[in-house]
Specification:
Elements: H1 2-22, H2 33-36, E1 41-52, E2 64-75, E3 85-88, E4 95-99, E5 102-104, E6 112-113, E7 118-122, H3 131-134, H4 138-141, E8 142-152, E9 165-167, E10 172-173, E11 178-179, E12 183-190, E13 211-220, E14 224-233, E15 244-248, E16 254-259, E17 261-263, H5 269-272, H6 275-279, E18 296-299, E19 333-341, E20 356-361, E21 367-370, E22 374-376, E23 380-382, E24 391-393, E25 396-405, E26 414-420, E27 423-427, H7 468-477, E28 494-503, E29 507-516, E30 522-523, E31 526-530, E32 538-541, E33 544-549, E34 555-560, E35 566-567, E36 584-593, E37 611-614, E38 617-618, H8 638-656
Length: about 650
Amino acid sequence: MVWRLVVLMCLLICDDLSRAQDYSDDAPPPPPREQENCDGIFVSYTFISREKEYPRLRNASAQSWAFKAMATVLNAGSFELKSWKIFIGFQHDEILVSAGGAVVMDGDDMPTSVGNGTFLSGFPQSDLKTSIVTAGDINQIEVRIPITGTQFGVKPPDVPMPKTISLANDGYKCPKPTLKKTSMSVCCTRNLKVEVKPKSTKFLPRQYGDLSFVYDIMQAYEGNYMAQVTIENNHPLGRLDHWNLTWEWMRGEFINSMRGAYTHKIDATDCIYGAAGQYYQGLDFSRVMNCQKNPIIGDLPSEKAKDEKVGYIPYCCRNGSLLPTIMDRTKSKAAFQLQVYKIPPDMNRTALYPPEKWKIVGVLNPDYKCGPPVRVDPTEYPDETGLLQVASSAIASWQVSCNITRPKTKTSRCCVSYSAFYNDSVVPCNTCACGCDDEETDTDNCNPNIPQMLLPSEALLVPFANRTAKARAWARLKHIDIPNPMPCGDNCGVSINWHINSDYRTGWTARITLFNWEEINFEDWFVAVEMKKAFLGYENIYSFNGTVLKDINNTLFFQGLPGLNWLMGEVNGSDPKTDPRVPGKQQSVISFRKKLTPGIKIKQGDGFPTKLYFNGEECSLPTEFPTGDGIRNPPVNLVPLILLTLVTSMLITHHFH
């Protein structure tokens, strides 16, 4: 009897121990109630800690704090989430230093300012499967993003939480997030009002972008693969000249060879002294093209298009020019191929990852912001054998969509000046229209914050550095105060003068003049002019080719005629020692009729552009117009002078008689 009692007590003690072990401090806390009730995508943000940074300041709003947080994205629904992306509405001038398992969608390198919020997307885990098909494997249905950064201005015990968080994928709707002291969460569900088309494949459909890249894996081997990059310009006013493309290899890859393009630096140093050199002991790295983590890639000149070693790629070798389709559809696309070597643990031929953080820039072209690579249906290509009705597919394809971002104040790369027949003063380009941060601008001797001084028309023909004397003389002639210091220059590579040439009862004319202050030439240039009030009255342009774009905000599209499509660069004057440099110029007169624009008031500014673009770049416009009552020399009335002469003559004649 006693031994039975002892056994029973042992069982009870063991059971208590097991229960204590199940609910010890090491066990993960139960999920929040909002997550348990979510039938969709559960997004959360948890503030963990922060620490005061140097320098230590008394001004609380200027003090910086290093913070740590954790964002999570959990697929708690019954549909797989492809290429997840979230928005975190930071609001305390945060600087994002790291985000594990995610990249900033606009391609910015970290650290990056995110004080107005930022979009994050997944890498390398971009898709979240469902619990149903993974037997609840948390590693396949959830991603955790440890975040570190710097924030300003929130003094303890207040907690620097974001304004909002949400899922940014199409087809989902997110309510207002639930906010607690140190956490924020939201359950985003599928939007039933958005029709989701049934997909025949498991990949996302291709998205529209002003500019798009497609990264196709054409051939895959053990340890390396062959890829093709295709660039397409989809925007009617978008353009690139002498483009340079860069991205970031995320898994130690390097470029062994290329066709149709080249890297600006041929260097294997990072491979030899890195993980690639340790793995590829027998590889001759002197023949490797580039081992940089962030290579810079440029286009080849047109004479290399038929080169057997580096050419023979469709759409390659355009000297970096990517034109809008309205100019030439065949020149709106570019392509090149590259052989990429991988390192462990990605040696399997199916371990394929595209580069991240794509950026592309041109010379005096729009700025493009690019999103992350998104897996799409494999690209189909015509079969190399030439058989009809046969197409081959890429092994895998990713798309990168980029959109044009318009320049902020004083960050344009071209500018516009205004003049008119009814006012002999020119309204020049704005002060620092293209920035005053360059080394050539001495803001100690010029004022970047005051308007430009009015100029005589001939001053437009000389560089800004040679205009000072003309501006001072004109101000004295017109009795205008001369500031001290005088305003800084516009610092623009291209300037455009819009001149109202005439105004009569049934119509009016304007003259447009392009000035190229750069040393490079612009081939196949174009100008797009948005006319808010005068668009319908456009009649003709006489020295350029003009096209009416009704669907693009009442825009007139001008380009050079065949043989006149070059805007030459700046050259020396006749005597380089004494004469100023001379810009390249193109000019034409434009005629308008008033029949379709009744009530148009040319002298009140209706004849000037609302927006103007050069090669896709939006140019800085003046903040004022020449007015009809402007300062100008009064015309001489000859009638009183003639009468006075006659009277004097009669008096003299009468006196001598």
